[in-house]
Amino acid sequence: MREPSERQRTLAAEVAKRLVENSLAQGREEAVRKLFSNDQLKQIDEWLKHQSEPIDRPEAIRRLVDIGLKVKGKT
Questions:
Q1: How far apart are CA 49 and CA 44, in angstroms?
Q2: What is the total count of domains within the chain?
Q3: Domain that holds residue 11
Q4: For residue range 7-38, what is the model confidence (pLDDT) as tens digits?
């Protein structure tokens, strides 16, 4: 059996990387779904649509928590 070419090794590494990234993303999504109700996720997604820059759901959650903490600190 001959050794894989550099291109084959590179492609295999890219595929492996994508598989790991997808697996991690699925794990994060599952964790988010355990923390928030479907209604809350819909509200977060709706808030995302109105942002001036594209951000992902985890970043949206961080920003919303920051906003909530700032508002709470003012009372």
A1: 9
A2: 2
A3: 1-35
A4: 887 888 888 778 777 777 777 778 878 888 99
The conformation of residue 4, written as its DSSP 8-state character, comes to P
The DSSP line for 8-61 is HHHHHHHHHHHHHHHHHHHHHHHHHHHHS-HHHHHHHHHHHHT-SS---HHHHH
Query: If you search the block for the tokens 């059996």, which residue do you land on?
Result: 1
Are 5 and 19 found together in one domain? yes
3 SS3 class: coil
**Are residues 29 and 1 part of one domain?**
yes
Phi-psi region of 36 (alpha: psi -120 to 50; beta: other; left: phi over 0): beta
d(CA 59, CA 22): 18
